[in-house]
Amino acid sequence: MSVPPISNDITTNLIESFNKTFKALYKAKKGFNSFEKANNLISLFIFHYNFIRPHGSLNKLTPAEVARFQRNNLNKFSWFVAA
């Protein structure tokens, strides 16, 4: 499966949107006590961003739904319990 190249403008906008969303979460946490806790939160955030959070630019779908990644809802949320 080939993926067409993404223009620099779109890539920059996506990265800026991701950073803005993550910054809001990080500011609410007021920092981290350890590298491990920071790493865990980043992993959870990436999962949430790609599998749980609907994106306006994707017609209120998640990136996983757009990519047609199939998981049932129970498995999707049990990942948080395991982490």
What's the SSE blueprint?
Layout: H1 8-29, H2 35-52, H3 63-66, H4 73-82
Structure, described:
With 83 residues, the chain is mainly alpha-helical. The chain has a domain at 30-83. 65% of the residues lie in helices and 0% in strands. It contains 4 helices and no strands. It has helices at 8-29, 35-52, 63-66, 73-82. It starts with 7 loop residues before the first helix and ends with a helix.
Average pLDDT metric: 76
User: What spatial form do the alpha-carbon principal axes imply?
Assistant: globular
End-to-end Cα distance, whole Å, is 32 Å
Which strand-content bin applies to the residues?
Answer: under 5%
* Number of extended strands: 0
Keywords summarizing the entry:
83 residues, mainly alpha, 4 helices, globular
What is the gist of this entry?
The protein is an all-alpha fold. The protein contains 4 helices and no strands.
